[in-house]
Amino acid sequence: MSETRRDFLSNTVAAFALPSAPGIPWYRRSYRWGQTNITEKDPERYDIPWWREYWKRTQVQGVIINAGGIIAYYPSKFPLHHRAEFLGGRDLYGELAQAAHQDGLVVLARMDSNRAAEDFYRAHPGWFARDASGSPFRAADRYVTCVSSPYYDEYLPGILREIIERTRPEGITDNSWSGLGRDSICYCDNCAKKFSDKTGQPLPRRHNWDDPVYRQWIQWNYARRLEIWDLNNRTTKAAGGPDCLWIGMNSGSIANQCRSFRDYKEICQRAEIIMLDHQSRSDPSGFQHNGDTGKLIHGLLGWDKLIPESMAMYQAGRNAFRLASKPEPEARMWMIEGFAGGIQPWWHHVGAYHEDRRMFRTAEPVCRWHKANEAYLINRRPLATVGVVWSQQNTDFYGRDDAAELVELPYRGWMQALIRARIPYLPVHAGHIDRDAPNFAALILPNVAALSDAQCAALRRFLQRGGALLATGVTSLYNEWGERRPDFALADLFGAHAKGSNLGSVKWAAGSFHTYLRLAPELRASVLRGFDDTDILPFGGMLEALPTDSGAVVPLTFIPPFPVYPPETAWMREPKTNIPGLVLKGRVAYMPADIDRRFGRDNLPDHGNLLANLVRWAAGDNIPLKLEGRGLIDCHLYRQPGRLILHLVNLTSAGTWRAPIDELIPVGPLRVKIKLPEDVPGQRLQLLVSGAKTPCAVEQGWAAFELKSVLDHELVVVT
Ligand SMILES: [Zn+2]
Prior knowledge:
Layout lengths: L2 H10 L13 H4 L3 E5 L10 H10 L4 E8 L22 H11 L3 E7 L2 E2 L1 H6 L14 E2 L2 E3 L5 H18 L3 E4 L14 H11 L12 H29 L4 E4 L1 E2 L2 H6 L4 H7 L5 E2 L10 H14 L6 E5 L1 E2 L5 E5 L2 H13 L3 E7 L12 H10 L8 E2 L3 E5 L1 H7 L4 H18 L4 E5 L3 H4 L5 E4 L7 H12 L3 E5 L18 H4 L11 H5 L5 E4 L16 E3 L14 E7 L20 E6 L2 E4 L3 H8 L2 H15 L5 E4 L4 E8 L2 E8 L19 E6 L9 E3 L9 E3 L2 E6 L5 E6 L1
Parallel strand pairs: 1-2, 1-14, 2-3, 3-7, 7-8, 9-10, 10-11, 11-14, 16-17, 16-18, 18-19, 19-24
Antiparallel strand pairs: 4-6, 5-6, 12-13, 15-26, 20-21, 20-22, 22-23, 23-24, 25-28, 26-27, 27-32, 28-31, 29-32, 30-31
Helix pairs in contact: 6-8, 11-12, 14-15, 15-20, 15-21, 20-21
Bound molecules: zinc ion (ZN).
């Protein structure tokens, strides 16, 4: 916003006026966000003019300001709404909301509404979650509120209305809105009655995924969170107008969403914007997880909507330091990977006063770059011909209490293999296969065990229309409730049949064994390309004999375990078996061997190369990008009318697999080829990070060019 425009707003418009942009609601035009999470001490030391200047420097268009919930930062009329210890008589939230509105910024009032102090508990003991013995669930010195109680139906709506009436925020966002997680069962009177009314059953006595009542309890909990979402939105819209949204924050981890009963697909169907609370990387999944998360959520939400993400400027990780700066390259790379996946920046500081001032240098240059190039970072369509299928139902009802091993690792293995091979891909929800199928040449099913009959039918239609399938592990062996079928639902497509008591077991999934796979020499030209000088590959998993159909081709067979130690004993007892590790039939590759899980865990290049070979075998000539040159580079390809956008993120560093990084290491030269759509002639190239000039050649419908050097990322626009 220009200075003139800012002055105009602050001088002539009432303090609570919305920033004006006719026709476009705030949730479609606020691309950069900031949040100073207010501590109880801050009312004594919050330097509002300093932060206003920081808002300006970082180009934010919206701010998230703590209002209420566990701690209130304004003088609430609700006596039990616990005021911040050092608030005094101040209305800190109100002052900040007013300042932000005067600066033309969108305000989201932040709530945190899952627990309350002892006085609240004593006043309303029936509003709190209780264990089987009737004792309240506690978190430190506070009491956990129950989602089935009037706390959510009556008390919180009153708080939302009060906040909106006082300050007219554009919306309200809640950090912790979904109540008690899956690990605890609430036995309060409200839950007992509501569950019984709904199902005719008493609450389940324990966690037991094989108990249909427990599974009903899971579904009932998901439904209750959606009721809360809808109720809160009705409340905020009634109080603040149709664009006054209530937005619960969501996680970037599907397993977390499951444990919190947040149905991402349903939430995205009713959300105009997702406020993503996914602040930093973990070692096993890397920065690239942020790009993957953005694409996954856009797949549910649509690519025309926004996904701002809370990005920690403090040291978040194995050991969190709320008051220490995260190394600038670590914070920057997380932000950039988010942009590449369609996520918008939202810097996050905990506390309004800091002695480690280095944290204030991180967001500004990244946000300025984001503003300068925002036209290429939003409202774009991904171009990928490979889809990786996932579902929350698979994480819940197959993954159960072992989703990390059974569901997340196989997915991560494929993700890493695709990134390493520079093959653009998109996550595809199992409920969107028919909708998304026309975009894809191949679909990957990473041990997607729990598939409904309808989802299996959609996969069959995809294959009948000329697509290819890559399935691993026990894909389709279970129905949507995690009940085992007599055989794979897709057995005829796989050319293999489920047999064996250990098939898909956690015991095998979690273990590491001294096993190998033997290569069939006649297939070295296709799926076994690049393995000319070896007859075996390291494996690490376990396999049982699976019957295969006639006509099925078996490129890999299992070599059972033999001793590792002492070395004198490390010789194969059974060098050859007929136990299949990989089965090819038509355009379907079925891999009983859990190479995807192994690659996700062990990072062996042979495993990554084998997975990449399979994708190339399945997708054929339909991969729109070729990139040559050294380094681990995450490639995101998009299109807008008349142009292609290639976002390359350089993940090559000394800290690629161990956070934090403190040094960026450039890669290059990179030779790039992109298949041109009809409306992109490929005559002009812009490099929007380096600003370098480089010629673009068009060869048989492909744009070809070279990037001399990429430090953190490069955004290439081809027109
Ligand atoms: Zn309850």
